[in-house]
Amino acid sequence: MTKICVLGLGYIGLPSASIFATNGFHVVGVDVDSKVVDVLSKGHIHINEPGLKTVVSAAIQSGNMIVRQVPEPADVFIIAVPTPLKEDNAADLTYVLNATESILPFLRKGNLVILESTCPPRTTEDILVPILQKSGYEIGDEIFLAHCPERVLPGNILYEFVNNDRIIGGINDNSSHKAREIYEKVVQGNLLITDATSAEMAKLMENTYRDVNIALANEVCRVAYDLNLDALEIIRLANMHPRVNLHQPGPGVGGHCLAVDPWFIVEKSDNAKLIRLSREINTAMPNFVVELVKKMLDKTVKPKITVLGVTYKGNVDDVRESPATKIIRELKQKNVEVGIYDPYVKNYEFELSNLEDACISSDLILLLADHKEFKYLSANELGLLMRNKQLFDTRNYLKHSKWQDAGFSVKVLGKNNQNS
Ligand code: SAJ
Prior knowledge:
The chain is of the alpha/beta class. The protein has helices spanning 13-21, 34-41, 52-61, 94-103, 123-133, 157-163, 173-183, 196-227, 231-238, 261-266, 273-283, 285-296, 323-333, 355-359, 379-385, 400-405; strands at residues 3-7, 26-30, 65-68, 76-79, 112-115, 144-147, 166-170, 191-195, 304-308, 337-341, 364-367, 390-393, 409-412. It has 2 domains: 3-189, Rossmann fold; 218-412, Rossmann fold (3-Layer(aba) Sandwich), CATH 3.40.50. The model has no long low-confidence stretch (mean pLDDT 97). The N and C termini lie far apart (65 Å). Residues 118, 150-154, 206-207, 210, 214, 247-248, 250, 253-255, 257-258, 312-313 line the site of ligand SAJ.
């Protein structure tokens, strides 16, 4: 049985490890965090992803997956650790470097090392190869190495891991061939063979495409405010053209992918001008939301608002790079009291309340994440708790007529020409 050691048991590593284990591989999942190892060993999971608990439990119960704090010898090593941003927006590769160093004592001739973590172009060739050479083996001949970036959408990871096409970027043909042999056992999408650096850049371009497109939508939103137009209607109409697909404006772009990956390109080339500007446009959206909120509260003495949802998008528990955090921080700095409710989040930088406490004596409900539960809120009941009945929906998500019927005045981000 082929043995795979997966380093990093987060949003990407844990689904990968458990899917390989339930497909007949012997998997050792490794995480440096003892709490993660404890939780997983007991059959629980530390992240919220639909269906993941079932797959992890099945993997552990089958005996095919064990969880450890340190690596052990294996046939394949998959590195799936975070690559955060540093203060200067350059990639912080510390976790990748540490994970790669940590497998050196266990490498044997014929092993395959796969980097799944997203990283700046040339990381595999220029940084991983020299580290792995310290093992004494010929990299590419005796140890095979590939970058096979993950492409799964949080909230739909299990489906997309299996069904999406997957890029396989070996440092040479043999490495690509070896990596393909592993993924073809679990992936039903196409396996797209290329070199390691093209794989790195292609992965970054996927998220950059989306970030730039959202920046364009956010720019339409800002321009529409200047012209007193409805940006959402304009985008809807433009998208009726068969070759136009504008994305949606929002309170900002968050998460560990779109808000981070484009910087990895900017770091490598002064010509990445549009990419940098798009990041700046999207990063400015929380501030724009704060300006609009201030306007809605300008006649209110000692205002209180209710934030619904602090995650970077709906139906996930991830608050990394969430625009909500910036918005709440800025509003608090402006002496606005903020009650916060998020049914998905347990630990957060700011105090979380239950829904009722968050709404009591509030002057405005500000929807920042489109969690499905929010569709079913009772506007009538919440209205009874509020001091002023105002709703600002930054995701164009709620059924606005229901809130209007309950006496709320409703604003939607992008719909500047609203009367109510
Ligand atoms: N957003 C908008 N407007 C839109 C779409 C999204 O403002 O029209 C915002 C969301 O609210 C969120 C952010 O963008 O704050 C990112 O959300 P997302 O759903 O676009 O993407 P992620 O970050 O959850 O996952 C992305 C995916 N990439 C692409 O769709 C190209 C996923 O496939 C990648 O695997 C993942 O990044 C990753 O790990 O790189």
